[in-house]
Design a protein that fits this description.
Blueprint (H helix, E strand, L loop, with lengths): L2 E11 L8 E3 L1 E4 L11 E4 L21 E4 L12 E4 L5 E3 L5 H9 L3 E4 L7 E6 L13 E6 L1 H8 L16 E5 H10 L14 E4 L14 E4 L3 E10 L17 H9 L1 E5 L2 E14 L1 E4 L3 E4 L1
Parallel strand pairs: 11-12
Antiparallel strand pairs: 1-2, 1-12, 1-18, 3-17, 4-8, 5-6, 6-7, 9-10, 11-16, 13-14, 13-18, 14-16, 15-16
Length: 296
């Protein structure tokens, strides 16, 4: 028998990879994720690499930008134009003729806004100078990292995301309020705002601790018919520590708290600081905020 474990308290999509996103009251959930999620990304023209807030040295102000769709995305259709508010307050649209020029001026590097990931989806990932943040031991250094379908091709495994998708690894992500509350107990005074974790689905639960760690390999059913298979814990990186606009300051304690209290063996012999979980679709449907969530 399924066990009711909570309710959906928030839904999010992020129209442009690594920019601030949109909170939703309802969302379709498909095998490709929530329509419009990570639909666009910046590509660095010189290197050909996808721009990510993980590239904190080259693009330190990426998370100061906010993205929202000009119209609601439709499942199965091309996403509509996206409206981007840059960190300096300038607003541009993806269908403006000078969009790429405006973005390049703001970031101080030549970039273009893209709808499809390169076949060799690679980013420059900055590893902060924090012991335990990276199982390979990288500290205060930049590492070239493959993501999305390119990552899975590199390890010879089937990809859960389309070749053109800008997802890091999986099309859906989930976190519980119990994880956020536990982190706040462990590091009082630190702001563990859910926006730091950039999750699609937030589940409000009465359980305590890092409860979703135990959901890996199981199925989440959401009132209305949507079902998700929980694939793996979600490893966290420097992005959790970065400022997001004026109301969410930089906070290195976020990652240090995860390293100390929730470092998990995501792959054999490699332990990562984790918060939340990745998921893939079992049954499509429409999810509403407030819907009950069951575990089987």
């Amino acid at each position: 028998m399924d066990e009711v474990v909570g309710r959906v308290s928030a839904l999010w999509r992020f129209p442009v990879k690594s920019m601030q996103g949109e909170q939703l009251s309802t969302a379709d959930v498909t095998a490709d994720g929530i329509p419009g999620d990570r639909a666009y990304a910046l590509v660095d023209v010189e290197s050909g690499k996808v721009v990510s807030a993980k590239s904190a040295r080259l693009f330190p102000n990426l998370l100061s930008c906010r993205a929202a769709f000009a119209a609601a995305p439709v499942t199965g259709a091309e996403p509509p134009a996206v409206v981007i508010t840059l960190g300096d307050g300038l607003t541009i649209r993806s269908d403006d003729a000078d969009c790429d020029d405006a973005l390049s001026r703001f970031f101080g590097r030549k970039v273009r806004l893209s709808r499809a990931a390169p076949s060799d989806f690679t980013i420059d990932q900055y590893h902060p100078d924090i012991e335990g943040a990276d199982p390979a031991g990288h500290r205060d250094t930049v590492e070239e990292t493959k993501l999305g379908a390119a990552f899975f091709a590199g390890i010879g495994a089937p990809s859960p995301v389309a070749a053109s998708a800008f997802f890091d690894l999986f099309p859906l992500s989930l976190i519980t309020t119990s994880t956020l509350e536990r982190l706040s107990e462990l590091a009082p005074g630190t702001d563990f705002d859910v926006r730091r974790f950039r999750m699609n689905i937030v589940v409000d639960t009465d359980a305590t601790g890092f409860v979703e760690n135990e959901w890996v390999g199981r199925t989440i059913s959401i009132e209305g018919g949507t079902a998700l298979s929980i694939a793996m814990p979600d490893p966290r990186c420097v992005m959790t520590t970065l400022a997001q606009g004026d109301d969410l300051p930089a906070e290195g304690t976020v990652l240090r708290t995860l390293i100390k209290n929730n470092r998990l063996e995501v792959v054999e012999g490699a332990r990562y600081p984790c918060a939340g979980v990745y998921a893939v679709l079992e049954t499509p449907g429409t999810v509403q905020a407030g819907a009950s969530v069951s575990l089987s």
